Amino acid sequence: MADQVTLTALNPREAVADALQRCVLGIDSNNQELFESGCLKNENMTVVLGPNTVEGWPAIKDFFQRLFTLVTTHVISNIRVELNDDGGSGADTASMTAHALAYHIRPDDALKPEDTSYTASALYDIDLVKDGKDGLWKIKRWELKVLWTTGDRAVLYG
């Protein structure tokens, strides 16, 4: 199956979780269109990583750009979704938590026998909105709480 943006027959909770799954699959497959399909690409999107907050789509796109130069694998688990139906006509906001284990390695080092990777474990706390234009859920606020790391930080941070 190609990295298609829209999947059919997702139930409401799966459709919410699909926003995160589109983002991480987009990063791991170097498909920026797929990554962006899971993001609220306007000034209201926020990414929080520890004490750092990145606000607005242009800054967030720049923030994630480094990942597209690496070989990455993100493993997402323990997804929990809360749908918020404030208007009685179906949910248009949601929140989600998930665990993530993210492996990062420079392309030239990907198949070397020695480990030159950078690995991070994190908890994600995410707020989402349903896009009225395409019907897809989009991440509005993405908080990454890093639990532990191992390896060469320079892989990710230069």
Give a verbal description of the structure.
Helices cover about 25% and strands about 40% of the residues. It has helices spanning about 10-30, 30-35, 55-65, 155, and strands at about 45-50, 50-55, 70-85, 95-105, 120-130, 135-150. It has a six-stranded mixed β-sheet with strand order 2-1-6-5-4-3. The chain is elongated, with a radius of gyration of 16 Å. The model has no long low-confidence stretch (mean pLDDT about 95).
In short:
With 158 residues, the protein is α+β, with helices and mostly antiparallel strands.
How far is the N terminus from the C terminus?
34 Å
Structural class: alpha+beta
* Low-pLDDT sequence parts: none
| Apparent shape | elongated
Give helix % range: 10-25%
Rounded to the nearest angstrom, the radius of gyration is: 16 Å
Individual helix count:
4
Secondary structure tally: strands? 6
In N-to-C order, the SSE pattern is HHEEHEEEEH
Q: Mean pLDDT across all residues, rounded?
A: 94
Name the descriptors.
alpha+beta, 6-stranded mixed sheet, 4 helices, 23% helix, elongated
How are the elements arranged and paired?
Blueprint: H1 12-28, H2 32-37, E1 46-49, E2 52-55, H3 57-65, E3 71-84, E4 93-105, E5 118-130, E6 137-151, H4 154-157
Parallel strand pairs: 1-6
Antiparallel strand pairs: 1-2, 3-4, 4-5, 5-6
